Amino acid sequence: MTRYSKPLRLTPLLLFLLLVLVACGGSAPPANPNDAPVSSDDTPVAEPPAPEGEMTIGEMQVESLDILTLESFPVQIQVIAQGMLADGCTTVGEITQRREGNTFFVTVATQRPTEAMCTMALTPGQAIIPLEVVGLKAGTYTVTVNGVSDTFELLTDNIAP
Known about the structure:
It contains one helix and eight strands; from the N terminus they run H-E-E-E-E-E-E-E-E. By secondary structure, it is mainly β. The chain has a domain at 55-154. The strands form two sheets. Strands 1, 4, 5, 7 and 8 form a five-stranded mixed β-sheet that branches. Strands 2-3-6 form a three-stranded antiparallel β-sheet, with no helix packed on it. A hairpin with a 2-residue loop joins strand 4 (91-100) and strand 5. The protein is rod-shaped. The model is unreliable at 44-49 (pLDDT under 50).
């Protein structure tokens, strides 16, 4: 019996040493290349967001013009420009007009919020433009709105009383 007693005494000692080694040996997580320190030179700089209320300006795509002569004195002329707006967020913006001889040049601008997420589908649009015709002589006049033209005629001088 003395032969088998020595191995039995070593077994608890070996188990104890094995337990101590396992407890002392830390388990490091696997190396991850994304955990590497980042140099400040490599940091991408984000562009600052557009200021709130900033608008993108464009021009309305005009498809047709209707010119209305209103029954009044002095005569009033209104132009209805119909066309397409670029997307669901675009609206008619500033309308400017100038006259050179017998031709009116009208620009219908559009506006949309710069950072807006919009439906990317053309949307019907319309602009009603009162022309500045008081003081004009009788004659035929041309109106050009964003490249689309039509004419109207004043039968009498349009002078205010």
